[in-house]
Design a protein that fits this description.
Radius of gyration: 18 Å
Number of helices: 15
Number of domains: 1
Number of strands: 0
């Protein structure tokens, strides 16, 4: 019988500076990588990106962007790319995935700093959300370091430069970028509406969609709500949602046995009968 905390045991045995890809997989695909948690965290990081006007305008694409036309597929495809990086790291297979993603991104006028902020959301949002809900970073020092090293590796594979020197500098960059660049746009708001609808469709029956929107927005901080010019959800719903997630993060994830091996790829390849990452991306 497998030791119930097998993933944590394995993480403790690894050297984060050399084994950060495996640690990141064990922590953020296995330990915390349930489908609901992974999708929600990504969807929230995406909402933060859409609060940056220059990024939102590119993604909105005058209403023709993939996030507007087929939000679920766009979200699933992005998560599949993440899963491929978890699986292959910067091996030759991983570099082929990065080349494919670079080809997709080459169509769009995105600056290095915008790309860097996008990557920062993926590294920093788990930590920010943990602090937002529990008042502290629930991830271990090794898990936090592996987050930075993993996404730094991905950034380099995607030719992103000027990466902050460590996880602390990256988090400071993340917070400062939002203070400097958050702003309302109609396009960003439209993408957000699509994200909310996709979240509701995926996790709630139709009659509960108004409630689903309130659940989703309960995970926004005041700055993000103000940027989108949105009212706070009711105190009752905010309290219920945040208490439930606080319990999950601060207690359940800490005491329950580690799940079996799992991959984001297996959770989000539903759009493909015969999945291969070469099929992912905007429809031609």
């Amino acid at each position: 019988m497998r030791y119930p905390y097998w993933a944590r045991k394995r993480i403790a045995e690894l050297d984060v500076e050399k084994d950060f890809v495996e640690i990141n997989h064990l922590a953020f695909e296995v330990r915390f990588g349930s489908k609901l948690f992974t999708h929600t965290l990504f969807s929230l990081a995406f909402a933060r990106q859409m609060a940056v006007p220059s990024i939102a305008n590119v993604v909105y694409g005058n209403g023709n962007g993939p996030s507007i036309q087929n939000t679920r597929k766009r979200n699933n495809d992005t998560l599949l790319f993440f899963g491929e990086f978890y699986r292959h790291g910067n091996s030759p297979e991983g570099m082929k995935v990065a080349e494919q993603l670079n080809r997709i991104h080459s169509r769009f006028p995105i600056s290095n700093n915008q790309n860097l902020y996008t990557l920062a959301t993926l590294m920093c949002e788990p930590i920010r959300m943990s602090r937002f809900l529990t008042g502290k970073n629930i991830f271990s020092q090794k898990e936090t370091r592996s987050l930075y090293l993993f996404w730094k590796m991905v950034a380099e594979m995607l030719h992103i430069t000027d990466i902050p020197k460590d996880e602390h500098a990256m988090y400071a960059f993340y917070l400062d970028y939002e203070k400097q660049h958050f702003g309302y746009t109609d396009g960003g708001h439209e993408v957000l509406n699509c994200l909310i609808q996709e979240f509701a469709d995926r996790w709630f029956p139709k009659f509960m969609h108004p409630f689903a929107k309130q659940v989703y927005l309960s995970l926004f901080d005041d700055h993000l709500l103000e940027t989108y010019r949105l009212k706070k959800p009711s105190l009752l719903i905010r309290t219920a949602v945040r208490t439930r997630l606080r319990f999950q993060l601060a207690f359940l994830f800490q005491v329950l046995p580690d799940p079996k091996e799992r991959s984001i790829i297996d959770l989000f390849n539903e759009d493909y009968r015969d999945y291969h990452i070469r099929k992912a991306g905007p429809l031609q």
